[in-house]
Amino acid sequence: MRYMVFVNMAEDVGAPPQALVDAMSAEMTKLFAAGSMLDAGGLYSQSECTEVRLADGAVSVTDGPYAEAKEVVGGYAIIEARSHEEAVEGAHRLIQIHRDHWPSWEGSVHVRRIAGPEDGPPPRD
Known about the structure:
CATH superfamily: Dimeric alpha+beta barrel
CATH topology: Alpha-Beta Plaits
Strand content: 25-35%
Helix content: 25-40%
Structural class: alpha+beta
CATH architecture: 2-Layer Sandwich
Radius of gyration: 17 Å
Shape: flat
Number of helices: 2
Strand order of the largest sheet: 2-5-1-6
Distance between the termini: 20 Å
Largest sheet: 4 strands, antiparallel
Number of strands: 6
Number of domains: 1
């Protein structure tokens, strides 16, 4: 099963310490080699973001940054996991790497399964 993993954080946290960059690079290299990480990347700031929205039948385009945003998606990964629990274990490792190498960082990781063509539409609650 494929999962989309979002890393959420305040946008103004600054540059990550080199120790975190090195630890994340090592972890990602291992996961790519094992075939469990399919894609990953960091995202540019909201100042380089554009939102295209449909509301009340009208399409609007708004350039960032967005003052109302408390947290932003700072990075993502697409992973392959045997179960939701396995995907969550990977997210926990990611948080632990941040805790170990950037102790002042605060944020969260969201893990969401990706529905493929073979799954049909994802179930709605």
